[in-house]
Amino acid sequence: MLYEIQSLLDEHADLQKQLADPAVHADQGKARKLGRRYSELNGIVEAYKRVGALTDDLEAAREMALEDPEFAAEVPELEKQLTEANERLRHLLIPRDPDDGRNVILEVKGGEGGDEASLFAADLLRMYTRYAESKGWKTEMISSNMTDVGGYKDVQVAIKTSSTDPADGVWAHFKYEGGVHRVQRVPATESQGRIHTSAAGVLVFPEVDEPEEIEISQNDLKIDVYRSSGPGGQSVNTTDSAVRITHLPTGIVVAMQNEKSQIQNREAAMRVLRARLLAWQQEQIDAENAEKRHSQVKTMDRSERIRTYNFPENRIADHRTGYKAYNLDAVLNGDLEAVIQSAIDVDEKHRLEQLGQEEN
């Protein structure tokens, strides 16, 4: 453990030198990547210094306690603080997801349930944008496909932060949202007052900092153009401005039609494609290491739901973490912190257990 800490301290000092070099900032993508890592190591360095300072204070208090009883009274409190500081340092040494500091592209799709599912997708989008606002993050609509009733067949938004600290990163919080979200409520169109169950799917991808970060050969792309349409298939454009890009090696397909310009739609589609490819590449690495990501479910099957939103009981329940609360109205208004924190806690507990096994 001491060797690992020293290597991290050395890396922190090296990053400090690199970030002080103006030439590094000429490459904004590289600078952001180095900045994220530097911010992550800052916490470890400060925690390590805190442990060192408390260790020195405790040793001094024990020595002086032999001559002065007043110092003896300080020993138990210093011991408690040192134990807490060591636990915090050990916690910070848990290997982080390298994408934690990234911004994200979030997709919400109406699933089973027709119009009601599309309306629930709109509710989820509102929940996420309000949560982002509460964190001081910015949201940017990339594309949307609305229904006649004002819901969404599918919608994509980018969520961004100016912080370089991975602990405050958008991906660090939103990566647990991927999966099938189930809602139980009485639809506005239900005349008999019966409770219906429908679902919406959420996908979250870490966004690529710079286009050059993900190499895409033009020979690997199949690009189709067509006329965009509005709710119900009504044509809203008389030119072939909509774009569909298929990445042939992976089969990933991205379609974009929000912008009036074919060039703008192509740029937006490539932005989303790069994010999906970054996630795909990480999944391949995880598969090779036998460490599959379990945080996201990419199908729309109800049996693979991660969360249930029960309106009659005002209940929110996360099926992965066991979290349950009766403040659904507040959660849908953006008060999502406790729900997400439950996922973070379970994930960190699992990684802490793995770290303990490696140490043994």
From TrEMBL:
Methylated by PrmC. Methylation increases the termination efficiency of RF1. It holds the Pfam family RF-1. PROSITE patterns: RF_PROK_I. The keyword Transferase does not apply. It comes from the Bacteria. InterPro entries: PCRF (IPR005139), Pep_chain_release_fac_I (IPR000352), Pep_chain_release_fac_I_sf (IPR045853), Prokaryotic/Mito_RF (IPR050057), RF-1 (IPR004373). Keywords: Cytoplasm, Methylation, Protein biosynthesis. Belongs to the prokaryotic/mitochondrial release factor family. Peptide chain release factor 1 directs the termination of translation in response to the peptide chain termination codons UAG and UAA. NCBIfam families: prfA, PRK00591.1. This is Peptide chain release factor 1. It comes from Rothia amarae. The lineage of its organism: Bacteria, Bacillati, Actinomycetota, Actinomycetes, Micrococcales.
